[in-house]
Design brief:
The protein is α+β, with helices and mostly antiparallel strands. 37% of the residues lie in helices and 28% in strands. The chain has a four-stranded antiparallel beta sheet, covered by helices on one side.
């Protein structure tokens, strides 16, 4: 089921298309953590994520997507950084380029992605 809130013409009875889009991107990133750990085992007991997104309804764009990843286990900070970078590099969602209006006209796209330790924050505001 897919729906929209009543204020946008839906019945508010199911997840929104943007909800599915965002959770799909978060799931992609989580799978990459699992894939990296499968190929290069590290002392990680669990991987949990808190995912948040903000959007600009007038401009019809996400302004940011924040993936806060919590790794538990006896992992050093350096190993957490390496794992985060490897997962990020493999993630189709994070590697997808988002274009601003002017960049679409020029035929070029850019995405700013900032990864710090095990926290991902993708900024998608217009780049000037």
């Amino acid at each position: 089921m897919i729906d929209e809130p009543e204020i946008r013409g839906g019945k508010g009875t199911g997840p929104t298309p943007l909800g599915y889009f965002f959770t799909g991107a978060a799931s992609c990133l989580m799978m990459q953590y699992a894939n990296v750990l499968k190929e290069k085992p590290r002392p990680v007991e669990s991987v949990k994520m808190l995912a948040r997104a903000h959007n600009d309804r007038e401009a019809r764009v996400f302004t940011d997507m924040i993936y806060q990843v919590d790794l538990t286990g006896s992992l050093s900070e350096a190993d957490a950084e390496t794992l985060t970078k490897a997962a990020s590099e493999r993630c189709f969602g994070e590697n997808t380029q988002v274009a601003t209006e002017s960049e679409r006209k020029e035929g070029s796209c850019r995405l700013r992605a900032i990864a710090k330790s095990a926290v991902h924050r993708m900024k998608m505001k217009e780049l000037r």
